[in-house]
């Protein structure tokens, strides 16, 4: 079972595959709707003393969430969630 926290965390994955790089959109930029496997958090592993690496049910594990990034997400969570919901609505989708 996934929670809105899991969905929020996956939507904000900082890796190049999800967010894109060199001007190219990432997988999550092009698809606002996520599958249950993409949002089910399977495990969470530490990365040194500076970050956490979620392991998702779909096997994705390249997102490294620094403590600084997580703190920023915490401060901006409502604003970022509202943008995600607006993107879903614009695409004719819902949660």
Summarize the structure.
The chain is α+β, with helices and mostly antiparallel strands and 95 residues long. Helices cover 46% and strands 20% of the residues. It has helices at 4-11, 16-19, 27-30, 36-39, 67-90; strands at residues 20-21, 24-25, 41-47, 51-56, 65-66.
Describe it:
The mean pLDDT is 85. The protein has five helices and five strands. The chain has helices at 4-11, 16-19, 27-30, 36-39, 67-90, and strands at 20-21, 24-25, 41-47, 51-56, 65-66. The chain has one domain (4-90): NE0471 N-terminal domain-like. The chain is α+β, with helices and mostly antiparallel strands. The two termini are 14 Å apart. Helix content is 46%, strand content 20%. It has a three-stranded antiparallel sheet with strand order 3-4-5. Strands 1-2 form a two-stranded antiparallel sheet.
Could you list some keywords that capture this structure?
95 residues, 5 helices, NE0471 N-terminal domain-like, alpha+beta
Topology:
Layout: H1 4-11, H2 16-19, E1 20-21, E2 24-25, H3 27-30, H4 36-39, E3 41-47, E4 51-56, E5 65-66, H5 67-90
Antiparallel strand pairs: 1-2, 3-4, 4-5
Largest sheet: 3 strands, antiparallel
Radius of gyration: 13 Å
* Helical amount: 40-55%
Percent of residues in beta strands? 15-25%
Oligomeric state: single chain
Please report the first level of CATH classification, the CATH class.
Alpha Beta
CATH fold-type name = NE0471 N-terminal domain-like
The general outline is globular
Number of strand segments = 5
* Low-pLDDT windows of residues: none
Helix and strand content put the structural class at alpha+beta
CATH architecture: 2-Layer Sandwich
């Amino acid at each position: 079972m996934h929670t809105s926290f899991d969905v929020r965390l996956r939507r904000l994955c900082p890796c190049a595959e999800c967010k894109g790089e060199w001007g190219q959109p990432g997988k999550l930029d092009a698809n606002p709707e996520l599958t249950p496997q993409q949002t089910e958090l399977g495990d969470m592993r530490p990365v040194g003393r500076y970050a956490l690496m979620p392991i998702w049910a779909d096997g994705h594990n390249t997102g490294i969430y620094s403590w600084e990034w997580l703190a920023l997400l915490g401060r901006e969570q409502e604003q970022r969630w509202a943008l995600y919901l607006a993107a879903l609505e614009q695409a004719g989708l819902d949660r």
